[in-house]
Amino acid sequence: MKLISSFSQLAELKHWFIVEPKSRILGLKPELEFLAISNGEFKSYLHRAIVNRYKERISVAYFVCPREDKLIKPPEDLVERQASRKYPNFKWLDLLDFTQKHYRADGATLQNFTKWLMSSNKIYS
Fold first, then answer.
1. CA atoms within 13 Å, Cβ hemisphere of 30
2. What is the pLDDT of residue 54?
3. Is there a domain that residue 88 lies in?
4. Which of 24, 48, 53, 57 is catalytic?
5. CB-based burial of residue 88 (10 Å sphere; 0-12 exposed, 13-18 middle, 19+ buried)?
6. Does 97 map to a domain?
7. Has 67 been annotated as catalytic?
């Protein structure tokens, strides 16, 4: 099987760059939940596949979604070590609703989700 490149974008850089494939390497892409759960330590990034009619591409996606009523929040000891909280607690269904109905994912999704959540008076402890 031939390895195919893909595009990734880091929000801070605001431009796309090619990620060249490497054999025997597993690439992981953390999603927004990991950014919130890690209180900003694990970064998420946008990813788009290069597709064309000349090269085959196989992508395997595993979606790990908590129950819709699951509260998403970082561990207390992590927040204490960092001395500040970056994102409010939220329920998985709120993030799903926001990204499916109100906002297309980009580098500012979690910040805009936080504003939307607070304006909706959805406060979870």
1. 13
2. 77
3. yes
4. 57
5. middle
6. yes
7. no
Q: For 78-100, how does the pLDDT look when each residue is reduced to its tens digit (9 = 90+)?
A: 988 988 888 899 998 998 889 88
Question: How many domains in the chain?
Answer: 1
Tokens of 65: 């979604």
pTM tops 0.85, yes or no: no
Contact 6, 45 (CB under 8 A): no
How does pLDDT run across 22-81, given as a tens digit for each residue?
777 666 666 777 778 888 887 766 666 667 777 776 666 666 677 888 898 999 999 889
Q: Is 71 helix (H, G, I), strand (E, B) or coil?
A: strand
3-class secondary-structure state, position 81 = helix
In a domain, 67, yes or no: yes
Domain hosting 20: range is: 6-119
